Amino acid sequence: AEEALRHAQKMDALGQLTGGIAHDFNNLLTAITGNLELLNARIDGDDRDGLRAHTTNAKAAAARAAALTQRLLAFARRQPLRPDETEPGTLIRGMEELLGRTVGEQVSIRTEAPPGIWPAWCDANQLEIALLNLVVNARDAMPDGGRITITAANARLTEAELTHGGQPGDYVRLSVSDTGSGMAPDIIARAFDPFFTTKPIGQGTGLGLSQVYGFVSQSNGVVRIESLPGRGTTVHLFLPRSEKGRLEQAGEPVVAATIEA
Ligand code: ADP
Question: Dihedral, CA atoms, 22, 215, 167, 118, nearest 10 degrees?
Answer without folding.
Answer: 180
